[in-house]
Design goal:
Number of helices: 11
Radius of gyration: 45 Å
Largest sheet: 2 strands, antiparallel
Distance between the termini: 72 Å
Strand content: under 5%
Strand order of the largest sheet: 1-2
Number of strands: 4
Shape: elongated
């Protein structure tokens, strides 16, 4: 079968319809898919001249299992390459609805299913790639988080759904390549699940694991709560990988540039909104910190006044205690029973004053400790306010830069729209000229018919005249 490559001749409406139908529907019966440069080709299996590059020399080129492995590896190459290119062109995070990403998961599912051994259970025969993926948890402890997350998902009921969820979580963590290399290197464990000639047991599996490293440049944000992973049908859409050379015109490039500019503008506007919200939140936090700073300052002033009052009270107690000591010394001389009673009362009063002095000193120490803590908290609060202020200034600067970039993108978008409008006007003028030329051609055809009719009349008249002369 000939390759599906674009022809150099000018396409006609009939050939365009046939080509479109061929792109939409591809029946794979006795054919294989191969890659010729950048083109996806279909060839017959009986074609002896097929010499694919990655196929080992010791294998039989007509071996159907080897051909399946090669086809799956080529499809994985195309899928990974297309996903990386489209994701880099978009320049944003991919979600679950992105078609190339869905096709990548379908291709990976077919690769993991190739050569699986059928296990018999109570419900019948089971053939799922969830078993090999569970081995990663034993070989790499950090993969246990993914396995636990998959088991905790409430909507998954089948091993197939859990395997699909595992692939998506590994891609989001950018660990898919590492985990695939880990299990491919343990052929002794994989032999329990795969046949000896399966893709995961041969060199093609190692090649695919190496290609998966390129996916680490992609940021994916996939939501699996509302997605039915158990009953999805994994069908490879070959039409996504067919190339069409007729779409490389200048107008298409212009539309692509406009789309890219609009996407950049939307991204910048979204980032601008996020930064504005962050600035508002930081401003509110700064206001709250300033209020708390004022409150703490007032509390510190009150504590200082309290400390001064306590210090004055301590001095007064010291003076009273010294006076009482002196009076007790004077009363220590024997002057009778009355002097003894005065001495006992004086000692009791001295004891009370001493206890009061100790209590005041303890409270003073507590107040001094609280003051030190408040001063330390004030210093930390001032430092935090300075850091918040610096971050606020930096965010405002970024916001100004983003506004300027948004302004430039708006100008670019306006200029692109003006150029597109000018091109549309030129196209309308050309269409009017084409219509005028068609009308002129029609008039010339009518006049040509009249001239031919007159010439025929003249010929008949000349024939009649010749007959009369004879």
């Amino acid at each position: 079968m000939s390759d599906l490559t674009p022809q150099s001749e000018a396409p006609t409406p009939t050939t365009d319809k046939i080509t479109q139908a061929a792109r939409e529907t591809i029946y794979l019966c006795n054919f294989r898919v191969s890659v010729d440069g950048e083109w996806l080709c279909l060839r017959e299996l009986n074609d002896i001249s097929l010499t694919p590059d990655p196929e080992p020399a010791h294998e039989d080129p007509k071996d159907p299992i080897a051909i399946e492995r090669l086809n799956l590896m080529n499809m994985a190459k195309l899928s990974i390459k297309g996903l990386i290119e489209s994701a880099l062109n978009l320049g944003r995070t991919l979600d679950s609805d992105y078609a190339p990403l869905q096709q990548f998961f379908v291709v990976m599912e077919h690769c993991l299913k190739h050569g699986l051994k059928t296990k018999k259970t109570f419900l019948g025969q089971n053939k799922s790639f969830w078993g090999p993926l569970e081995l990663v948890e034993k070989l790499t402890p950090e993969a246990g988080e993914i396995t636990a997350s998959v088991k905790d998902l409430p909507g998954l009921k089948t091993p197939l759904g859990r395997g699909r969820a595992w692939l998506r979580l590994a891609l989001m963590q950018k660990k898919l390549s590492d985990y695939m290399k880990t299990i491919i290197n343990r052929k002794d464990l994989l032999s329990e699940f795969y046949e000896p000639n399966a893709l995961m047991m041969e060199e093609e599996g190692a090649v695919i694991a190496g290609l998966l490293v390129g996916l680490n440049v992609i940021d994916a944000n996939l939501c699996m709560k509302g997605e039915d992973l158990d009953s999805q049908v994994g069908v490879i859409d070959f039409s996504m990988y067919l190339k069409d050379g007729g779409h490389s015109s200048k107008s298409t490039e212009g539309d692509g540039q406009i789309t890219a500019i609009l996407d950049q503008k939307n991204y910048v506007e979204e980032l601008n909104r996020h930064l504005s919200a962050s600035v508002n939140n930081l401003q509110a936090k700064v206001d709250a910190l300033e209020k708390s700073n004022t409150k703490l300052t007032e509390e510190l002033a009150v504590a200082n006044n309290r400390i001064i009052t306590l210090q004055e009270e301590v001095e007064r107690v010291k003076e009273e205690s010294s006076y009482l000591v002196e009076s007790s010394r004077k009363a220590s001389r024997p002057e009778g029973t009355a002097d003894g009673q005065v001495l006992g009362e004086t000692r009791k009063q001295l004891k009370e004053e001493t206890q009061l002095r100790l209590d005041v000193e303890k409270e003073l120490e507590v107040q001094i400790g609280m003051r030190q803590e408040m001063e330390l908290s004030m210093k930390m609060l001032e430092k935090d306010i300075c850091e918040k202020h610096d971050a606020l200034v930096e965010l405002r600067q970024q916001l100004d830069d983003l506004r300027r970039l948004n302004h430039e993108l708006s100008h670019k978008s306006q200029s692109s729209e003006a150029s597109v409008k000018q091109k549309n006007e030129i196209i309308i003028r050309l269409e009017d000229k084409t219509n005028q030329m068609a009308a002129t051609i029609k008039q010339l055809e009518n006049s040509e018919k009249d001239v031919i009719k007159q010439a025929r009349n003249l010929n008949s008249a000349a024939g009649k005249l010749l007959q009369k002369q004879q």
